[in-house]
Prior knowledge:
CATH architecture of the largest domain: Alpha-beta prism
Radius of gyration: 21 Å
CATH superfamily of the largest domain: Enolpyruvate transferase domain
Distance between the termini: 6 Å
Largest sheet: 4 strands, mixed
CATH topology of the largest domain: UDP-n-acetylglucosamine1-carboxyvinyl-transferase, Chain
Structural class: alpha/beta
Strand order of the largest sheet: 22-23-1-24
Number of helices: 14
Number of domains: 2
Shape: elongated
Bound molecules: uridine-diphosphate-N-acetylglucosamine
Amino acid sequence: MDSIIVTGGAELSGRIPIAGAKNACLALMPATLLSDEPLTLMNAPRLSDIKTMTLLLQSLGVEVTAMQEGRVLTLSSHALSSHRADYDIVRKMRASNLVLGPLLARTGHAVVSLPGGCAIGARPMDIHITGLEALGAEIELRDGYLHAVARGGLRGAVIEQRFASVGATENVVMAATLAKGTTVLKNAAREPEIVDLVHCLRAMGARIAGEGTGTIEIEGVERLGGATHRVVADRIELGTYMIAPAIAGGEVELLGGRRELLPAFCEKLEAAGVTITQTNDGLRVARANGRVHAVDVKTEVYPGFPTDLQAQMMALMCTAEGVSVLEETIFENRFMHAPELMRMGARIEVHGGHATVTGVERLRGAPVMATDLRASVSLILAGLGAEGETLVNRVYHLDRGYERVEEKLSACGARIERVRGE
Ligand code: UD1
């Protein structure tokens, strides 16, 4: 297994290109199942999660062609051969459940394994199921699999989600594009990845209004066609690299970055004393001399502070001046990075969904363990500002969501290298 060694203390200076959004791409790829014409995705990120989704779609009979080293993906579902998403693939990645809605809408059948235990919480699927049942699907749980059928096809409905789930919104919107009649989805998720999916579905011929607001209206159409779509910038990768100069000092320009992708996050960083400037090419982020100030953070659905940046923010707060409280409201078990940061000298107390961080002058490098995707990158960020060497083990989590992290950071002067495991 690979590990990453970071030697702290180097100020950063340079430019980092932001890739296409993993989470947008993972919803866009299954949209191919809605049409028998090809869907081309430009600006796809090169990540192991994208490979996992490719394998899953191929197991359903989708033809996937990658060009430009995986930056351009063409998917064709003209000859689907299966409607079963196997446990072997789904257990690796929860986003596999995004084939449920489109398969059901296109073929009238879907058998999708439940994702099983996930390190950051229970993450059930009740909101997906309730939404698809409202569209007329019959869904049963047997042998760990959801068996869904839509006898006579799906019908539009008014649905109010009990929580604005990102995945459930994506599944229901995709399914409703081919349903008979109009669907009104209330308490829909508003994340930029949903907006990106809707733009793509519209290019395929879907009739949808209200994306980016809490109510999305979908008027079902007979069939969808092919399209070419450019994946939106990855706001979580953007936020992660915005924290790098805030921890290490210096100035970095994030190419393709836009403030509106991360409104609440930008406000918090500025309150902590970080300077953010919109340039023609992206966002420039700088930390002047001295430590950042402690700020309190509460994770919320978009446009609030993203849960996927909570671990990275905690890494920053470890060396802030003062005491900060981080509250996690989206996932129930998402502070696994705290004990690892404490091995580096951080002062953190976790009580349920709250973590209280008392900033220290400097962290010290240590061997640490990556426990999930965002936790692993938070340890690398912490290592950038720490004294000495930080060895981050089990970085396969990192490769699920960050492409070439060591190259992007070392191009800005960070001392970071990957050690290949057997
Ligand atoms: C997506 C993102 C993930 C991000 C999360 C929240 C992708 C591929 N992943 O995950 O990176 O952290 O949004 O912004 O886009 N829930 C239920 N029942 C359901 C569905 C969800 O209780 O049917 C709960 C979950 O357990 C969790 C919360 O709702 O506590 C948020 O989940 P959701 O918004 O669905 O996240 P994902 O789509 O899984």
